[in-house]
Amino acid sequence: MTSNHSPVILIVDDTPVNLLLLTQLLSAQSYDVRPVTQGTAALTAIRTIRPDLVLLDIRMPDMDGYEVCRQLKADEETA
C-alpha cells in the first residue's frame, strides 16, 4: 500500500543556517519539511503534525535534544 502524502520531516535546530540548508536539501527530495528552532516548539509540533522523522539538534538553549527525547518517550502518544 502506498501513501499519497510526502513523508513529513521535523527539523529541530536553533541555528538558522542549519535549518535553511536542511530544509532546502530535503524539500528538493520531495519531503514535507517542518523546521522549528526550539525544543518546546518541537514538542508542540510533534503532537500536532506527527512527523515520520525528527532530525533533532542536541545542544539548544531552551531545552536540549536529550530532554525533548525524554519527554517524547514519557508521553504514550509520542513514545
Keywords:
3 helices, 79 residues, three-stranded parallel sheet, alpha/beta, 3 strands
Give structural notes.
The structure is a single chain. Helix content is 42%, strand content 18%. The radius of gyration is 13 Å and the shape is flat. Helix 2 (39-49) packs parallel to helix 3. With 79 residues, the protein is α/β, with parallel strands linked by helices.
SSE layout and pairings?
Blueprint: E1 8-12, H1 16-27, E2 32-36, H2 39-49, E3 53-56, H3 65-74
Parallel strand pairs: 1-2, 1-3
| Helix/sheet category | alpha/beta
Unreliable segments (pLDDT under 50, ≥5 consecutive)? none
- The averaged pLDDT comes out at 93
For the record, give the distance between the C-alpha atoms at the N and C termini, rounded to a whole number: 25 Å
Taken as a percent bin, the fraction of beta residues is 15-25%
- Report strand order across the widest sheet: 2-1-3
Largest sheet composition? 3 strands, parallel
Number of helices: 3
* Rg calc: 13 Å
Order of helices and strands: EHEHEH
Estimate the helix proportion, in percent.
40-55%
* Overall morphology: flat
**What is the oligomer described by this structure?**
single chain
Strands, count: 3
Task: Please sum up the structure shown.
The chain has 79 residues and is α/β, with parallel strands linked by helices. It has helices spanning 16-27, 39-49, 65-74; strands at 8-12, 32-36, 53-56.
